[in-house]
């Protein structure tokens, strides 16, 4: 898979799409890794919105924010949510504290839901809470691997956001997802050489089967979109 003739899907974030040589591969799985507040949810929502504008259907599964919060978030950005909500955009809140229900819903019901909706873009935000359901390390690895393999059978592009631990902003909390997905986008704060202030910066750490930028680029979360400054340098 992943020859260069393959279709790519865009985030609709110009600077990021160019760092990804035009977008991530259709049907692939991408993880956005970053500490809280870096913009993982925002990047994922923009990815969904880009699909909706193109007439695609999308599913946003939230494990941390309430549905109303997500609706409010989208509305605040001035996106014409009403046009899409419950017609082509389905926002679902799962409760990760209810172990069996959450695991079964994600593992068993999600593939059916994707098919019945005909969703081309799916987000799980954040996957860390799914991983955290499993207390045993090898079970967690196995279950995550199985889930990801299962999702590869679905005809959709999947984004999994992933939290980092406080002491390591470079890796996801359980350091598993990076090995299993096709693309890893890392969001983190960096301090430029003049030490004046920290800036959020984005980096494509990995992209199976494609060239991608190795540069670290600053970005900003504006009211209605994410702006990646691909011409600027952070160092
Ligand atoms: N409507 C908005 N306009 C401008 N900035 C926003 C808006 N919504 C959220 N933000 C900012 O974007 C940042 C990233 O938010 P979010 O995507 O939820 O991060 P994460 O999912 O990584 O925790 C927040 O710290 C907030 O300051
Ligand atoms: Mg978030």
What does this structure look like?
- It comes from Methanofollis liminatans DSM 4140.
- Keywords: ATP-binding, Nucleotide-binding.
- GO terms for molecular function: ATP binding.
- With 235 residues, this protein is α/β, with parallel strands linked by helices.
- The protein has one domain: Rossmann fold, CATH 3.40.50.300.
- The protein contains 8 helices and 12 strands.
- The strands form 2 sheets. Strands 3, 4, 5, 6, 7, 8, 9, 10, 11 and 12 form a 10-stranded mixed beta sheet that branches. A two-stranded antiparallel ribbon has the order 1-2.
- Strand 10 and strand 11 form a beta hairpin.
- Helix 6 crosses helix 7.
- The chain starts with 7 loop residues before the first strand and ends in a 7-residue tail after the last strand.
- The model has no long low-confidence stretch (mean pLDDT 91).
- The site of magnesium ion has 3 residues, from helix 2.
User: What is the tally of helical segments?
Assistant: 8
Enumerate the spans where pLDDT stays under 50 for 5 or more consecutive residues: none
Query: Average pLDDT across residues?
Result: 91
Strand content: 25-35%
Instruction: Classify the helix fraction into a percent range.
Output: 25-40%
Q: What's the architecture in CATH terms?
A: 3-Layer(aba) Sandwich
Number of strands: 12
CATH level-1 class: Alpha Beta
- Per CATH, the superfamily is P-loop containing nucleotide triphosphate hydrolases
Order of helices and strands: EHEEHEHHEHEHHEEHEEEE
**Sheet/helix structural class:** alpha/beta
Bound molecules: adenosine-5'-diphosphate, magnesium ion
Domain count, please report it: 1
Based on the structure, what is the oligomeric state of the protein chains? single chain
CATH topology: Rossmann fold
In this structure, how is the largest beta sheet organized?
Answer: 10 strands, mixed
Global morphology: globular
């Amino acid at each position: 898979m992943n020859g260069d003739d393959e279709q790519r899907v865009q985030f609709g974030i110009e600077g990021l799409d160019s760092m990804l040589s035009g977008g991530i591969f259709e049907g692939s799985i991408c993880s956005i890794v970053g500490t809280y507040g870096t913009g993982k949810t925002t990047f994922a929502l923009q990815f969904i919105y880009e699909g909706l504008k193109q007439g695609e259907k999308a599913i946003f599964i939230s494990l941390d924010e309430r549905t109303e919060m997500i609706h409010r978030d989208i509305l605040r950005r001035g996106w014409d949510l009403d046009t899409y909500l419950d017609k082509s955009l389905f926002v679902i809140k799962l409760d990760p504290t209810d172990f069996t229900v959450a695991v079964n819903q994600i593992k068993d019901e999600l593939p059916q839901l994707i098919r019945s909706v005909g969703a081309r873009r799916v987000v799980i935000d954040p996957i860390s809470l799914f991983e955290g359901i499993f207390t045993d390390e090898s079970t967690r690895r196995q279950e995550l691997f199985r889930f990801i393999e299962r999702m590869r059978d679905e005809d959709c592009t999947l984004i999994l956001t992933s939290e980092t631990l406080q002491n390591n902003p470079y890796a996801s909390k359980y350091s598993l997802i990076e090995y299993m997905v096709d693309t890893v986008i890392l969001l983190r704060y960096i301090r430029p050489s003049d030490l004046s202030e920290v800036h959020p910066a984005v980096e494509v750490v990995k992209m199976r089967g494609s060239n991608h930028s190795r540069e670290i680029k600053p970005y900003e979360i504006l009211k209605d979109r994410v702006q990646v400054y691909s011409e600027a340098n952070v160092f």
